[in-house]
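Appendix C: a fully annotated inverse folding record. The material below is reproduced so that readers can follow the format used throughout the book. The structure is listed first as C-alpha cells, followed by the designed sequence.
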C-alpha cells in the first residue's frame, strides 16, 4: 500500500488532539497505541517537549524499594544504529516516586505504566505492595535486572523462577500487570508462557540485548560495567521476530512491542507482527518528541487500515 510521505511536522506537541485510533491493552484503553519505553522518559525533561497526555501511555523509569545510585560511569557507548547503556536502574525509590513523579503525571492526565525494578524477589514484592493502592494505571515488571535470589541472573531468563515471581506479585494487586521480557534467552516463547501461567495480564518486549564496546586505543571496555544493553534501530528486526514468535505462542495475550521504533511505519510493523501497542525508547534520546511524532504518524497509517484499527480498539491483535 502506498502511504506517501508522512505529515509529521504539522503536529503541535502541546495542542490537545483527538486521536481516532486507540488500543485496549489488558482492559485499559490507550488513546493511541504509542507509549514511552521505560528509562527513556523523565517528566522534568520530556514535559518541556510535549504534553504527556498526548501519548497512549507513559512507562516510567524502573522504581525500586529504596533509592538506587546506578552503575559507575561511563554508562553509555554509541553503537551502529543504536547505543549500549548500563545506567543500572538509577532512581530515587518508590516512596519518592509515590510522592513526586506519580502525582505529577496523574495531574497531567497521563495514563501511567509504573515500571518495577528489583534485585531480589523481595524487592519486587515491596514495590508492588506500595503501588497496589496508588494511582498507577498499570504495572510493568522489569524482570531483566540482575537478581540475587537467582544467583545474579535476571529472573526473566528462568521460566520456573519467573512464573513463581509473577504468581507472587499477581496475588498482591488487582492492577493490570505487564511482564517485560528479556530477549537474552534461547526461546522467548518459553518465558512468555511462564509469565502468562503466573498470571500476567500483558507482556512487553523486548528489553535490551547484552552488548559491549571497546576503546581501540586502550583495549579496554568503554562502559565501566563492561557490558550493557543494546537499544535503538539496530534491534528492531530482532524485536519484531520476538513479538511474532510470542504472538504465535499466545494468540490472546496483549503484547506491547518495543525495540528500535522511531517512526509510525516502524510502529505499524510491530502491530502487523501481533503487538496491540508499542513503546518508543532510544529514539527519544535523539529526538525528544519522537514518541508523539510516532503516534501522529501511526494515526495517519491507521486511517488507511480500518481492519487493523478496529481490531486494536476491540483489544485484539492483527491476525495473519
Ligand atoms: C537509557 C536507557 C534506560 C533504560 N531503563 C530501563 C528501565 O529502567 N526499565 C526497563 O524495563 N527498561 C529500560 N530500558 C529499556 C527500554 O525500555 C527498551 O526496552 C529498550 O531500550 C528497547 O527499546 P528501544 O530500542 O526503543 O530503546 C532502558 C533503555 C535505555 C536506552
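Designed amino acids, in order:
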Amino acid at each position: 500500500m502506498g502511504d506517501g510521505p508522512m505529515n509529521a511536522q504539522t503536529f503541535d506537541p502541546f495542542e490537545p488532539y483527538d486521536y481516532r485510533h486507540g488500543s485496549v491493552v489488558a482492559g485499559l484503553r490507550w488513546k493511541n497505541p504509542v507509549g514511552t519505553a521505560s528509562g527513556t522518559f523523565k517528566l522534568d525533561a520530556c514535559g518541556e517537549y510535549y504534553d504527556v497526555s498526548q501519548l497512549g501511555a507513559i512507562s516510567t523509569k524502573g522504581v525500586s524499594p529504596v533509592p538506587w545510585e546506578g552503575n559507575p560511569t561511563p554508562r553509555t557507548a554509541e553503537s551502529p544504529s543504536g547505543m549500549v547503556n548500563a545506567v543500572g536502574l538509577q532512581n530515587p525509590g518508590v516512596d519518592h516516586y509515590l510522592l513526586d513523579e506519580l502525582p505529577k503525571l496523574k495531574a497531567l492526565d497521563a495514563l501511567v505504566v509504573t515500571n518495577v525494578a528489583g534485585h531480589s524477589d523481595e524487592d519486587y514484592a515491596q514495590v508492588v505492595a506500595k503501588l497496589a493502592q496508588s494511582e498507577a494505571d498499570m504495572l510493568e515488571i522489569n524482570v531483566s535486572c540482575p537478581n540475587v535470589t537467582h544467583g545474579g541472573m535476571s529472573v526473566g531468563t528462568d521460566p520456573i523462577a519467573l512464573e513463581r515471581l509473577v504468581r507472587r506479585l499477581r496475588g498482591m494487586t488487582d492492577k493490570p500487570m505487564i511482564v517485560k521480557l528479556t530477549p537474552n534467552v534461547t526461546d522467548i516463547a518459553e518465558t512468555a508462557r511462564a509469565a502468562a501461567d503466573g498470571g500476567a495480564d500483558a507482556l512487553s518486549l523486548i528489553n535490551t540485548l547484552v552488548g559491549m564496546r571497546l576503546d581501540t586505543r586502550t583495549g579496554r571496555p568503554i562502559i565501566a560495567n563492561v557490558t550493557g544493553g543494546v537499544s535503538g534501530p539496530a534491534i528492531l528486526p530482532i524485536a519484531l521476530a520476538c513479538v511474532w514468535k510470542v504472538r504465535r505462542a499466545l494468540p490472546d495475550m496483549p503484547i506491547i512491542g518495543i525495540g528500535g521504533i522511531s517512526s509510525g511505519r516502524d510502529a505499524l510493523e510491530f502491530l502487523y507482527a501481533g503487538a496491540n501497542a508499542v513503546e518508543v525508547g532510544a529514539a527519544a534520546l535523539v529526538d525528544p518528541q519522537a514518541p508523539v511524532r510516532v503516534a501522529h504518524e501511526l494515526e495517519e497509517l491507521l486511517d488507511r487500515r480500518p481492519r487493523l484499527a478496529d481490531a486494536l480498539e476491540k483489544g485484539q491483535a492483527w491476525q495473519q
